[in-house]
Amino acid sequence: METQSFGVCFLIRKCKADKKRADIYARITVDGEEKEFSAKEQIDTLSWNSEKGMVRGNSIAVKSINDHLENIRLAIKDKFRKLQDAHELITAESVKNAYLGIQTQLKGHKLKELLAYYKKIWELKLKNGGFKNYKSTIKYIELFLDHKYPSGDVYLSQVGGEFATNLEHYIRTIPLKDHDPCKGNGVGKHMQRFKRILNWATDDLKWIRENQCKNYSCPLKKSKRKKLDIHELVALERKSFTDPTLHYIQELFIYCCYTGLAFVDAMALAESDFEWEADGTVWCKIYRTKSNELCAVPILRSAAKILNRYRDDAKEKGRTTIFPKITNQHVNDCLKIMQAACEINTYLTFHVARHTFGKTVALKNGIPLETVQMMMGHTKIATTQIYADVDEEKIINDMAGLEDKLERKREIILNTQKTEYLYN
Length: 424
What we know:
By secondary structure, the chain is mainly alpha-helical. The chain is 52% helix and 12% strand. The protein has a 3-stranded antiparallel sheet with strand order 1-2-3. Strands 6-7-8 form a 3-stranded antiparallel sheet.
């Protein structure tokens, strides 16, 4: 819950039957909302001190009334603190009811109910690759609720800036796996997904009027996508590995450097995913496992050589997939060995192959951004634009010939000035 304004004061209201007499009321204010109830005391109207909120005078009767009002004030403040400690929804109405002993239940949907419903609906809509990160985010939120709140849950109306701040701190300090702490952009991504779930509850389900966390900020740090430059790609291609597993992973990785396929899509490749044109062009057309977006990639000769070898091997051994099955973890472990053997500076994971296709193979060789988007199966072109970051090589290429252009413009200006001088 966010920091709330809170106050208690007393006022009087004149009696309808006798305007000289007045009833004393207690007023509770929480975030501008006001609720009143009778203090069950009646006084002469002229004896009321409106500035101090108490009765004027020193008589025993006056002192008794003022003591009673102060006790009410202290009791209301105590109820407010207890509601805070219990992480209950605090309104002027709930504080008033707590003081009066009225047992009311908060209405509305709770956060765990939303998480369960989100998982039920979206897990079927998205492929496992597209939903697995949401599973982690939901798990973090559920563990945080169990850790922070005695009831293990909160109403959606209680989820605000303070909740988001505490959730972010929890993710940073208490990882799902002790050996794999979540830091940096990983935390930011969890908070992004948390806000999207709340937006869904607000905009689509109408479970809450407003997402109180919509302006909560956990900025992502821009990072350059790791990729092989052309020298590193050639070094990997030319390296000979005698170990059969390393050789297979080398060819699988290089194939994806020239097609842009993610590991899960490469593992699922089948004969039915290819189309042959009359002019000899071979197309690889698949729907990405992660986003279900269509990828359409013409197979380059560098990839076709590898593809044909494994197509023949699949037919010979009766495999339904082009490439033999292998785990991503084992592939990444072997890539570290290949990185060292080839003296490659880039930290190799299999996903580097996809980035290498997007930047080194496609964009750096003049393939338009929109074409790369189609080949890589990106839903939004903004995702493809991440690959189009400016690096030193692009700066040098863009600046090439600039000095000659400037020199030619200088000569034109000087010649023009000389001509004007002769005629004058």
